[in-house]
Write a structure and sequence with these properties.
This protein is an all-alpha fold. The chain has a single domain, classed as Glycosyltransferase. 58% of the residues lie in helices and 0% in strands. The protein is built from 6 helices and no strands. Helix 1 packs parallel to helix 3 and helix 2 runs antiparallel to helix 3. The chain starts with 16 loop residues before the first helix and ends in a 6-residue tail after the last helix.
């Protein structure tokens, strides 16, 4: 039996980033508790799936129509993967802010600016359970 045929492209949304961010959070919280190899495994896994999911979601938004109104607040989740990845990378890299950390920070800033540019659209939509995505960004990462 193949269950993957039940997944439609229209069901993809930024909430799919949550497990990816979970892998990246391991690197933020795990320094001092887990060895470097394990932390790098979770960091690599998170970065790998972040890139893939970003491509899938941009493809969906650009070529297959914008998200339904009730999912628009989940666009804020686009900020979480690069931001948490940068924090995790800094923790693994003993706080050294190098080129890769700067790239991750700049990607998070770009997504934040895009979200602010779209902010006027949020005033027009009704309240949905997906609004939880905005306070999700305010939670401390460590």
């Amino acid at each position: 039996m193949c269950y993957y045929k039940d997944i439609e492209f229209a069901h993809s949304n930024p909430a799919w980033f949550i497990p990816v961010v979970g892998n990246l959070l391991v690197t933020t919280a795990g320094v001092g508790f887990a060895n470097h190899t394990l932390l790098m495994f979770f960091f690599s896994l998170g970065i790998f799936f972040w890139i893939i999911l970003t491509a899938i979601l941009f493809n969906r938004i650009i070529f297959h129509g914008m998200l339904a109104q009730k999912f628009l607040p989940t666009l804020a989740i686009f900020i979480a993967p690069p931001a948490v990845a940068m924090l995790g990378y800094l923790r693994i890299n003993n706080g050294e802010f190098d080129l890769f950390a700067e790239i991750l920070l700049n990607i998070a800033v770009i997504f934040t600016l895009i979200l602010f540019a779209l902010a006027k659209n949020f005033y027009k939509i009704k309240f949905f359970i997906s609004w939880w995505a905005l306070p999700f960004l305010l939670l401390p990462s460590h």
